[in-house]
Amino acid sequence: xxxxxxxxxxxxxxxxxxxxxxxxxxxxxxxxxxxxxxxxxxxxxxxxxxxxxxxxxxxxxxxxxxxxxxxxxxxxxxxxxxxxxxxxxxxxxxxxxxxxxxxxxxxxxxxxxxxxxxxxxxxxxxxxxxxxxxxxxxxxxxxxxxxxxxxxxxxxxxxxxxxxxxxxxxxxxxxxxxxxxxxxxxxxxxxxxxxxxxxxxxxxxxxxxxxxxxxx
Length: 216
Fold this sequence. Notes:
- The protein has 216 residues and is mostly helical.
- It has helices at residues 2-10, 15-41, 46-59, 62-68, 74-87, 93-112, 115-146, 149-152, 155-215.
């Protein structure tokens, strides 16, 4: 009974799986565009930022340091959280560090948003395509079983039906490759920005230590 019902379901073929893959590709494309806009809008330009920020901190010029990190980006938002605490008179290095760590956690969550659907599409689209291929082959053999002897002996029916079924696997792979590539690019970019943020966090804490020494 169960096998018969599953067989009836499989006779539906792979066309609905192809439409599902089209929908997943749209979701993947939307996530890629959204992340690309965010990453390009918040380009870091670390080579320009780092020397100017370190110079301002070495002079104890907090206003200039804050001016260097006023633009929106992961690194700047993390550093600005610590500099803002220092500008307000806080001289506890641990509290300043915690403020920057909190900002780093928020920025990481902001940049990693919408990456989960991208990873899900990349990991599962090939399997969905393979499922569509299996359904298509089952449908092909069902139609072959209903054909007469002359038609069943023709290789064109079998080859054509299996060829159509294999399209689902190809589409699944086609959907997965850009999704996986975009996911890996985004994760690598986030990791690189976090490393720069940690480096400049140490510069801020070092600047705080020097300002305490001058005050002493």
